[in-house]
Design a protein that fits this description.
It is built from five helices and no strands. The protein has a single domain, classed as Up-down Bundle (Fumarate Reductase Cytochrome B subunit). By secondary structure, the chain is mainly alpha-helical. Helix content is 71%, strand content 0%. It is elongated and about 50 Å long. The longest helix has 36 residues. The mean pLDDT is 93.
Length: 180
């Protein structure tokens, strides 16, 4: 690690990471619930899903900007090249899905003629065939996001419990002790 590389992520990056992790998990559970629950709570679940989706869209844009501008800890030097490549690729997929999911949801609502949160403008014209395509894509990408989150969690646990190399500690929330 050189002098310009921190040993932990910026506190705001760590806060955004954990806030988004909670919101993504909540979003996945709300999304599944609203598909299977057609009770009077259905409308509330849809409203909650839209609000969380909009919040995640804003947060991921901020997070991408921070990732591109703030220095961050390097991966451990002894990490095999294939694992470095896998880490980079999985992060790109994760960021792409975190950006695509709310945009596709916005487009889906627009194409279906549904009301948008905060009176946002329609992203695409009203088109029921496009709505069907976007709805299917939104569902399949949600499975992809869930799988990617599980892979991310698995890798974090390997770093924390098997390798014990400080990668998990570098993103852990809360104050950082001087020995870290």
């Amino acid at each position: 690690m050189n002098a310009s590389s921190p040993s932990v992520f910026h506190p705001l990056a760590r806060l955004l990471h954990w806030l988004m992790a909670l919101l993504i998990l909540a979003m996945l559970f709300v999304g599944v619930s609203m598909v299977v629950d057609l009770s009077p709570r259905h409308t509330m679940l849809i409203s909650l899903h839209k609000a969380i989706g909009l919040a995640l869209l804003i947060l991921v844009v901020v997070r991408i900007a921070m990732r591109l501008t703030l220095p961050h800890p390097p991966l451990p030097r002894d990490l095999p090249p294939w694992q470095r490549l896998a880490a980079g690729a999985s992060h790109l997929v994760l960021y792409a899905l975190m950006l695509a999911m709310p945009l596709i949801g916005w487009g889906m609502l627009s194409a279906g003629g549904y009301p948008l949160p905060l009176h946002l403008p329609a992203l695409v014209p009203h088109d029921l065939q496009l709505y069907a395509v976007l709805r299917r894509a939104h569902g399949w990408l949600a499975y992809g996001l869930f799988a990617t989150v599980l892979v991310h969690l698995g890798a974090a646990l390997v770093h924390a419990l098997v390798r014990r190399d400080g990668v998990m500690r570098s993103m852990w929330p809360g104050p950082v002790r001087p020995d870290q």
